[in-house]
């Protein structure tokens, strides 16, 4: 069942974020970054073809459970924006990500999220679109990420920047509520469980997966549990 993109959902998420005792991470050894969790409207069945060259990226890498890496048939109703990074980037190439990046000197978290959203997807929103912030998430690659939840205001045009984003997707919030989500696996390199969020025909890992899990738990279910304890896969450590 898709979720309606309406004022009731907007107010529910805004109130739950306002009532949340947000967990802040202060680590001078890490750089501060912001990501934009943009809530928009979407149409069921508009994404039956994946525009990204996923087959070339995956090559012969084995995929679990018959997954093929494509993000298809996920749209419908209230949704969030998800990016597939280009393969030309020097770090985290071809990975799933929310629009975002490092704070510029003197820049606020909200300003950074709004700027990165404009630079990566060509979407211009104002501070009035902010619903609230999720918990900070410290990454293995040297960042503390602060997620900024934004209300996109309906159907918006996406213009991905080709140097950074090969494709952008509208993923229905109902996908976060799948019965097989979340998943957890273990790796020998860490005692912490690695979180996986099944979306389409792929698995979204932390840090993006951790942010999306808290969006579900807090925004959709009213649960205030933390997510920073969940591990990233090895390919995200660099």
TrEMBL record:
GO molecular function: coenzyme A diphosphatase activity; metal ion binding
PROSITE patterns (UniProt xref): NUDIX (PS51462), NUDIX_BOX (PS00893)
Keyword check for Metal-binding: yes
Start and end residues of each Nudix hydrolase domain: 30-195
Keyword terms: Hydrolase, Magnesium, Manganese, Metal-binding
Magnesium as UniProt keyword: yes
Cofactors demanded by this protein: Mg(2+); Mn(2+)
Similarity-based family: Belongs to the Nudix hydrolase family.
Designated name of the protein: CoA pyrophosphatase
């Amino acid at each position: 069942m898709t979720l309606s993109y309406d004022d009731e959902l907007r107010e529910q998420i805004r109130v739950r974020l306002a009532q949340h005792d947000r967990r802040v991470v202060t680590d001078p050894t890490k750089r501060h970054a912001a990501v934009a969790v943009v809530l928009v409207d979407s149409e069921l069945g508009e994404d039956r073809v994946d525009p990204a060259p996923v087959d070339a990226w995956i090559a012969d890498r084995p995929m679990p459970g018959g997954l093929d890496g494509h993000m298809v048939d996920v749209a419908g109703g209230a949704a969030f924006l998800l990016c597939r990074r280009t393969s030309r980037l020097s770090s985290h190439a071809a990975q799933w990500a929310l629009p975002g990046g490092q704070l510029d000197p003197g820049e606020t978290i909200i300003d950074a999220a709004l700027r990165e959203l404009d630079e990566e997807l060509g979407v211009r929103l104002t501070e009035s679109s902010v619903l609230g912030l999720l918990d900070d998430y410290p990454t293995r690659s040297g960042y503390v990420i602060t997620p900024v939840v934004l209300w996109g205001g309906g159907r918006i045009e996406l213009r991905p920047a080709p140097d950074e984003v090969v494709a952008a997707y509208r993923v229905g919030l109902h996908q976060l509520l799948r019965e097989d989500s979340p998943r957890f696996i273990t790796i020998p390199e860490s005692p912490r469980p690695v979180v996986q969020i099944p979306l389409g025909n792929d698995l979204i890992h932390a840090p993006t997966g951790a942010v999306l899990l808290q969006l579900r738990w807090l925004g959709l279910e009213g649960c205030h549990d933390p997510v920073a304890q969940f591990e990233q896969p090895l390919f995200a450590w660099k």
